[in-house]
Specification:
3-stranded antiparallel β-sheet; 14 helices; alpha+beta; single chain; 2 domains; 12 strands
């Protein structure tokens, strides 16, 4: 018959102190797992590998919490100390550099309090496991009254619950709930007021009803709806809302802009061809949506060249689908303070990003939000030059939509035939 572990053994009225500590550690790590589950959805949107890794970590922490209650043996404690120390180290690397697995989405999902609480819980758990492992046998098997097995973990759980609920309640704009709404969840996308083509305040009915066929797989042009299509950290380039009804000539120009952009970008449907032409990724490779920049095309624009160069757009946007990367848009970027031509009038509107952390090479290495007020070392937060998309996939809002959440872009890309590409 197997001899019970000293840290588990109990008699009628007492239990080992190690068992009480083990229950408390299980509560702390279960709370850390809840935080990892909460932030995983946003991480998946920004970089799939980091999101999947976060889910794996969360489940492993749940399993460990159960194991340390069921059998708080030395191997279990040792595994908890090593694993949570590794997670704590990964967190510190991410905070310091913005990079962990690929390029970690710094601070996505919860506020700084939430991610900081997760790290603190893991740190306390590591210390607790280390104490139980290093303490002398007499300390580990020292007995306390059985009621402490209820009272102490209950107090630990109450404090942890308050901190955890606070972390989830103050989740910033990047929280999973907000992300789901922005990405077209039923509550967000099925509301009539958010559907493309619906009237916006101050928009003439004639403008709201515009529907112009194009040759692009993106479908018909409609009036852009910034209220629906812009996420946090974005704003229109012009402070004045553009709602005027486009003239007949502007409508024709918008159709020509979309059709010409689609025709001239055909060769870039091949990701290899785009790379050969000098386009390089400036957002995390492997993310759901990846932006590529042509430094030569952008330098030409800064030097006074055309902004709307349909043959060589400054940027290309790809979405990673199960069948490989799909070209989803050409993005035209003007020079700082440069012209923002609107051939289609209010059908063709420019926007800027205000929350991005940009490196000297224009790589996007992070973002600032309510929980992260500073950028990773080597980057800075500055307003981007104005930019405009021409979409090649059927996202809500049509080919000249201001923007779209990553989930909508990927779903639209899956509907379009594309040459065989690897991961963008």
């Amino acid at each position: 018959m197997e001899k019970p572990d000293a840290m588990e053994a109990s008699d009628g009225g007492t239990v080992p102190v190690a068992r009480v500590v083990g229950y408390c550690l299980a509560i702390l790590i279960f709370a850390a797992a809840v935080i990892h589950f909460a932030i995983a959805a946003k991480y998946v949107e920004q970089y799939w590998l980091f999101g999947v890794s976060t889910l794996v970590v969360a489940w492993l922490q749940v399993i460990w919490a159960v194991a340390v209650i069921a059998r708080p043996s030395r191997p279990v404690l040792r595994a908890g100390a090593v694993f949570n120390a590794a997670m704590l180290g990964l967190y510190l690397v991410t905070v310091a550099t913005g990079d962990a697995i690929g390029r970690a989405p710094k601070g996505a999902g919860l506020s700084g309090f939430g991610t900081g609480l997760c790290a603190a819980l893991e740190a306390v758990a590591v210390a607790g496991c280390a104490w139980l492992l290093m303490a002398g046998t007499s300390q580990r098997v020292r007995r306390v009254q059985r009621q402490r097995l209820v009272v102490v973990p209950a107090a630990t759980g109450a404090v942890t619950a308050v901190l955890l609920s606070t972390a989830l309640a103050v989740a910033g704009p990047g929280s999973p709930a907000t992300s789901a709404a922005a990405a077209g969840s039923p509550s967000a996308s099925s509301s009539p007021s958010n559907m493309p083509g619906m009237n916006m305040p101050g928009m003439p009915a004639a403008a709201a009803s515009i529907k112009l066929p194009t040759t692009s797989p993106a479908g018909d042009i409609t009036m852009p709806s910034p209220d629906m299509q812009m996420e946090d950290g974005m704003r229109m380039a012009s402070p004045k809302a553009c709602v005027a009804t486009p003239t007949t000539s502007q409508q024709r120009a918008a159709v020509a802009m979309v059709n010409t952009s689609w025709q001239d970008s055909q060769r870039f449907r091949s990701l290899a061809a785009a790379k050969a032409a000098g386009y390089r990724a400036i957002t995390p490779v492997g993310a759901p949506v990846v932006h590529y920049l042509s430094a030569a095309a952008y330098r030409a624009t800064v030097a006074g060249g055309p902004v709307l160069d349909y043959t060589d757009p400054q940027s290309l946007v790809y979405a990673n689908t199960p069948n490989g990367a799909v070209l989803v848009a050409a993005m035209y970027i003007t020079s700082p303070g440069g012209p923002t031509p609107q051939p289609g009038g209010c059908l063709t509107q420019w926007h800027v990003h205000t929350n991005l952390c940009l490196s000297a090479g224009l790589d996007v290495v992070g973002a600032v939000d309510d929980g992260n007020s500073t950028c990773p070392p080597g980057s800075s937060n500055r307003v981007t030059p104005p930019m405009i998309h021409v979409w090649f996939v059927p996202i809500p809002g049509g080919p000249t939509a201001v923007d779209a959440p990553n989930r909508q872009v990927v779903q639209a890309a899956e509907q379009v035939h594309s040459p065989a590409n690897g991961i963008a």
